[in-house]
Specification:
With 305 residues, the chain is an alpha/beta fold. The protein has 12 helices and 11 strands.
Length: 305
């Protein structure tokens, strides 16, 4: 906006540059493919917007005033910058269309996604990949805002997330189990062994509401039981680190703690009845996607779970 908040028409700048190059209103109007009276009005409108005369109409050929000469250099920079911005925006759009964009919950971005993608590719590249890792709540927001094509998260048929509620297309990629684990007891201390009668007395390291695993665990197991959460976070890896330090027990994906259980650094804190099965599920946008994304989705039909 210029003086008096009048809008600036970029055509006026182009007209001004043509006039400065030709030094003649008639020739400049021909170059710009508009009638000379309209061309003259554009130049006058630009001068009104700037607030000073830019052209010395008494000279032949037409010359720029001192103000016009100063304005000319700056206007050239502005037009060049706008053209560069247009080119970069088009290039960014082309890159985005050719790329795969995922929103992936924290733990899956580290434990599942890399190996899954390698297996899916089968030695063939998929092109550029953009991955955004966060809590389920944040990943759902990215997905609903269409900033990503795919959402990868833990899921459960009885605990719908936002994508489930909207009936968006999805495929189960794998299965896992939430298992209660704790560090081996210190000498002279009893091990943690869950029972309904002692659950409230156990120091539980729990998930926040933003966590997919937390939603599933509460719905399937803890909603009707009294528990005592001494620490909450939406990152399963953080809860695992706290458990390894002996700060309490937590329900963690078996795939995340398999090695520690095998090595004895963690132990089961409950029988099989305390385990909660979960899915690893990939959701996609309901509309047609870019060819690279559609190709990935099609390949999933040939990939066994």
């Amino acid at each position: 906006m210029g003086p008096g908040n009048r809008p600036l028409d970029l055509d006026w700048l182009e007209d001004f540059m043509a006039l400065a190059d030709s030094g003649n209103f008639s020739r400049a109007a021909t170059v710009r493919a508009i009638a000379q009276p309209a061309f003259s009005r554009h130049i006058r409108s630009l001068e009104t917007w700037v607030g000073v005369d830019l052209v010395d109409r008494s000279s032949h050929p037409t010359e720029l005033t001192a103000a016009g000469q100063k304005f000319h250099g700056l206007a050239a920079d502005i037009l060049a910058a706008l053209e560069a911005a247009r080119i970069k925006a088009c290039a960014a759009q082309a890159e985005a269309a050719a790329s795969l964009r995922f929103a992936v919950t924290h733990v899956l971005s580290l434990t599942f996604f890399p190996q899954w993608l390698t297996t899916l590719e089968g030695g063939e590249g998929t092109g550029p990949i953009h991955l955004m890792s966060d809590s389920l709540q944040a990943c759902e927001d990215l997905f609903m805002q269409r900033r990503v094509q795919f959402l990868l998260c833990h899921a459960h048929p009885a605990v719908p997330n936002k994508a489930d509620e909207l009936g968006l297309p999805s495929r189960v990629l794998a299965h896992d189990t939430l298992v209660p684990v704790a560090a081996p007891p210190a000498p002279g201390q009893p091990p943690i062994l869950l029972e309904d009668s002692n659950l409230a007395a156990q120091p539980l390291l729990g998930y926040s509401e933003a966590s997919a695993l937390g939603r599933i665990l509460r719905h399937q197991l803890l909603a009707r039981r009294e528990v005592s959460e001494v620490f909450t976070a939406h990152h399963a890896l953080l809860l695992k680190a706290m458990v390894l330090q002996g700060r309490g027990m937590a329900w963690l994906p078996h795939s995340l703690v398999r090695t520690e259980l095998d090595e004895g650094r963690l132990r089961s804190a409950g029988e099989d009845a305390w385990a909660v099965p979960v899915q690893i599920r990939l959701y996609r946008q309901p509309t047609e996607l870019a060819p690279a994304a559609e190709g990935l989705w099609q390949r999933l039909s040939d990939t066994p779970v």
